[in-house]
Design brief:
mainly beta, 4-stranded antiparallel sheet
Length: 84
């Protein structure tokens, strides 16, 4: 059996249904029904979920004069450990 997304009409939702064990029946007429605690609840097909495409992020590289590209030795005496 192929996987299909099914939904239940809001007025048919009852307490205790979330994470409960239930059976889905496909009738000869093609309709789908959910059997839960001896009750039969109608199901209908859902449209397929649209896949949201994320914009492609490019890797950011700092410009040549950015402080990240400078050597720690050239930053000056304020970072040296000799005075401690």
């Amino acid at each position: 059996m192929e996987q299909q997304r099914m939904e239940m009409p809001r007025e048919q939702v009852c307490a205790g249904l979330r994470d409960a064990r239930a059976e889905v029946e496909q009738r000869l007429d093609g309709s789908h029904w959910l059997r839960y605690q001896g009750r039969y609840l109608p199901l209908r097909g859902c449209p397929l979920a649209r896949v949201k495409t994320q914009p492609h992020k490019t890797k950011w590289t700092p410009p040549l004069d950015h402080p990240w590209r400078q050597s720690w030795k050239s930053l000056g005496s304020d970072l040296s450990l000799e005075g401690q």
